[in-house]
From TrEMBL:
<keyword id="KW-0233">DNA recombination</keyword>
<dbReference type="GO" id="GO:0000723">
    <property type="term" value="P:telomere maintenance"/>
</dbReference>
<dbReference type="InterPro" id="IPR010285">
    <property type="entry name" value="DNA_helicase_pif1-like_DEAD"/>
</dbReference>
<dbReference type="InterPro" id="IPR051055">
    <property type="entry name" value="PIF1_helicase"/>
</dbReference>
<keyword id="KW-0347">Helicase</keyword>
<feature type="domain" description="DNA helicase Pif1-like DEAD-box helicase">
    <location>
        <begin position="303"/>
        <end position="436"/>
    </location>
</feature>
<feature type="region of interest" description="Disordered">
    <location>
        <begin position="482"/>
        <end position="512"/>
    </location>
</feature>
<protein>
    <recommendedName>
        <fullName>ATP-dependent DNA helicase</fullName>
        <ecNumber>5.6.2.3</ecNumber>
    </recommendedName>
</protein>
<dbReference type="GO" id="GO:0006310">
    <property type="term" value="P:DNA recombination"/>
</dbReference>
<dbReference type="GO" id="GO:0005524">
    <property type="term" value="F:ATP binding"/>
</dbReference>
<dbReference type="GO" id="GO:0016887">
    <property type="term" value="F:ATP hydrolysis activity"/>
</dbReference>
<comment type="similarity">
    <text>Belongs to the helicase family.</text>
</comment>
<dbReference type="GO" id="GO:0043139">
    <property type="term" value="F:5'-3' DNA helicase activity"/>
</dbReference>
<keyword id="KW-0378">Hydrolase</keyword>
<keyword id="KW-0227">DNA damage</keyword>
<dbReference type="GO" id="GO:0006281">
    <property type="term" value="P:DNA repair"/>
</dbReference>
<keyword id="KW-0234">DNA repair</keyword>
Length: 512
C-alpha cells in the first residue's frame, strides 16, 4: 500500500528517539509512547484490537519501572525522550504526574479533572460519573486484599458500557468515554499478573466507545465560533468535547501503545478547537454561567489571540505609508511593547505624580525648553492610538484631551477637541479596570479624601464632579470620550456603554 494511503497506528514525535539500551530501571515519566489512535478519529470502525506482545512491568511507589533491556515485540517498542533534551523530559514528567492525579480528583464533585464537568446544572450526577466516584473511593483506599474486587467492579462497568452502547445517546457515550480514561489511568498506575490483559481490554473498550461516538456525531469537537451553544447544557457538552480533544492530544505526546492497526491520518492541529476559560467552565449556576458567557462574548472581538494586534499593525502601517505620523501608546509598558509603542506617560512627557496636579499646573509642566521636543512631537502627531483603553481612567483621559488641545491649538475654548488629531482606541471597554481611579480631581488636583459625598456621587470641595467612582471610572464615561465622537453616539450606543459599565471587570486569567 502506498505510504500516503497508510497511516500506522502510532504517534511518534520528531524529538522522540528509540533507546538503544533501556536500563534495568528507569522513570516511566520519561517515556514517550504513542496512543493507538490519532487525534481526530480517536478510534477506527473496527471493534477488535490486535495487541502486540508488550510484557508488563513492576511499578514501585516512586514510579520506577523495571524492564528488560530489549522490547519483546516490534509492535510494542517503547521510546523515550532523548537524554540530551532535559526540558522535554521534564515536560513529559509533568504531564504524567498530572494524569496520575486524575483518579483522586474524582473523589469529590468540586475537584473533578478539568475535562469532566461536575454537572452543576443537574441535581444528581449521571450514572456513569456517580459510579466513577464510587470506584475512585475504592481506588484511593485500595489494599492488596481489595484490589481484585476493584478490578471486578471496573470490568463490570465497562461490560455495562459495551452492552448498552447502542442505546446510549451522544451525551451518554461521551460520559462513558470520559470515565474510561479515568479507569485506564488507574490501570496504568498498577502492576500485577493481569495488568497487560486489563489495559488491553480497557483500551479496546475506549476505541469501541470512541468509534460509536463518531458514528453518532460525525466529528469529535468544534469551536463556539462555528457552532454556538444556545443553552448551558448544550455548551457543557460542546466544551467537554473540546477539552477531551485537547487531553487526547496531550496524552498522545507522552504515551504510545502501538497495536499494528491502520487508521486515517490526523487533521491539522491548528484547527483543533481550544477550551474556554476556567471561570466559564466552573460556573455553578445558570446566572453565573450566563454572566461569564456574556463577558466572554462581549470581549471576543478584541480578546487576546483573535488578531487585534495584527489588525492594528496593518492599520498603522497603512496610515504611515499615507504620510500620517502615528503615535502608538498604551497605559502600561507591557501593553505598549506588544505594539512597539510607548506608554501614555512617555508620550506626554509626564511623571506619574504630574497627574495629581491641577489642570493649570499640569499644563505648566509642558512649558520650558526641557519639554520642547515633547511639544513638537505632540503638535506633529496626526493619529493617536491608545490600546487597552479599559485601563485608562476617566480623569486621565480628560487631562490628556485638555493638554493636547492646549498645546496643539492654543486657541482657548475655540480649540477643536483633542487638538484636531485623529483618535483610535482599542480593547475591551471593561476588561482590566484602571488602577486607583479618582485619586485626585483633574480640575483642581484636590485629593479624594477631601471630597464630599452627595446623592449624585462624589464632589470635590471646589464643586467639581459629581463622579460615581465605580461606575464612572472607565474611559468611555469621560467627557473627553464624548468630544472625540468615537463611532456611533446614538442613544442605543450609549445604552450599550451604560450596560458595559455595569459589568464586572474581567480578570487577566480569563483572557482567551
Amino acid at each position: 500500500m502506498p505510504e500516503e494511503e497508510r497511516h500506522t497506528d502510532s504517534l511518534c514525535l520528531d524529538w522522540a528517539v528509540t533507546s538503544e539500551s533501556l536500563g534495568a530501571s528507569f522513570d516511566f515519566n520519561d517515556l514517550v509512547v504513542g496512543w493507538a489512535s490519532p487525534l481526530d478519529t480517536l478510534s477506527s470502525t473496527q471493534q477488535t484490537t490486535a495487541y502486540g506482545d508488550i510484557s508488563f512491568w513492576d511499578v514501585s511507589k516512586d514510579l520506577q519501572i523495571s524492564m528488560p533491556q530489549r522490547s519483546l515485540s516490534a509492535k510494542g517498542d517503547l521510546t523515550r525522550v532523548s537524554n540530551h533534551l532535559p526540558s522535554l523530559q521534564h515536560a513529559s514528567r509533568v504531564v504524567m504526574q498530572m494524569l496520575y492525579a486524575y483518579p483522586r480528583m474524582m473523589l469529590r464533585r468540586q475537584t473533578f479533572p478539568p475535562f469532566i464537568h461536575p454537572h452543576w446544572h443537574q441535581e444528581h450526577l449521571p450514572e456513569a460519573l456517580g459510579n466513577c466516584m464510587s470506584i475512585a473511593q475504592l481506588f484511593a483506599s485500595r489494599t492488596p486484599e481489595t484490589m481484585p474486587f476493584l478490578w471486578k467492579i471496573i470490568a463490570a462497568e465497562q461490560g455495562r458500557f459495551r452492552d448498552k452502547l447502542s442505546t446510549f445517546n451522544p451525551w451518554e457515550v461521551h460520559l462513558c468515554l470520559q470515565v474510561m480514561i479515568i479507569y485506564m489511568i488507574m490501570a496504568m498506575s498498577e502492576s500485577d499478573a493481569d495488568s497487560k490483559e486489563r489495559i488491553a481490554t480497557l483500551f479496546e473498550t475506549v476505541e469501541l466507545i470512541g468509534s460509536r461516538f463518531l458514528d453518532l456525531t460525525g466529528s469529535y469537537s468544534s469551536s463556539e465560533a462555528t457552532e454556538p451553544s444556545r443553552t448551558w447544557e448544550v455548551w457543557i457538552f460542546a466544551e467537554s468535547r473540546r477539552r477531551m480533544s485537547c487531553l487526547w492530544l496531550i496524552i498522545s505526546c507522552v504515551i504510545t501503545i502501538e497495536n499494528g492497526r491502520t487508521c486515517s491520518s490526523c487533521g491539522a492541529l491548528e484547527s483543533l478547537a481550544l477550551p474556554s476559560s476556567k471561570t466559564l467552565w466552573e460556573a455553578r449556576t445558570l446566572d453565573e454561567w450566563q454572566m461569564e458567557k456574556d463577558v466572554f462574548d462581549t470581549g471576543l472581538p478584541f480578546s487576546a489571540g483573535c488578531g487585534k494586534s495584527t489588525v492594528l499593525r496593518t492599520a498603522i502601517a497603512q496610515l504611515r505609508a499615507a504620510g500620517r505620523k502615528v503615535a502608538v501608546t498604551a497605559p502600561t509598558g507591557k501593553a505598549a511593547l506588544n505594539l512597539d509603542g510607548v506608554t501614555l506617560y512617555s508620550y506626554m512627557g509626564w511623571k506619574p505624580e504630574d497627574t495629581k496636579l491641577s489642570l493649570n499646573k499640569l499644563k505648566g509642566t509642558m512649558t520650558g525648553s526641557s519639554k520642547q521636543k515633547i511639544r513638537k512631537s505632540l503638535r506633529e502627531t496626526h493619529v493617536l492610538v491608545i490600546d487597552e483603553i479599559s485601563m485608562v481612567e476617566n480623569n486621565f483621559l480628560s487631562q490628556l484631551e485638555a493638554v493636547l488641545s492646549a498645546i496643539r491649538n492654543n486657541q482657548g475654548n475655540r480649540s477643536p477637541p483633542w487638538g484636531g488629531l485623529q483618535l483610535i482606541v482599542t480593547g475591551d471597554f471593561c476588561q482590566l479596570p484602571p488602577v486607583d481611579p479618582f485619586q485626585n480631581c483633574w480640575h483642581c488636583g484636590e485629593a479624594q479624601k477631601k471630597w464630599q459625598v452627595s446623592e449624585e456621587g462624589m464632589i470635590c470641595s471646589n464643586g467639581h464632579g459629581p463622579w460615581e467612582t465605580d461606575k464612572d471610572k472607565w474611559a468611555f464615561r469621560s467627557p473627553a470620550w464624548e468630544k472625540a465622537k468615537l463611532g456611533d453616539s446614538s442613544p442605543e450606543r450609549q445604552a450599550i456603554y451604560q450596560n458595559a459599565s455595569e459589568m464586572p471587570p474581567r480578570h487577566p486569567s480569563r483572557r482567551t
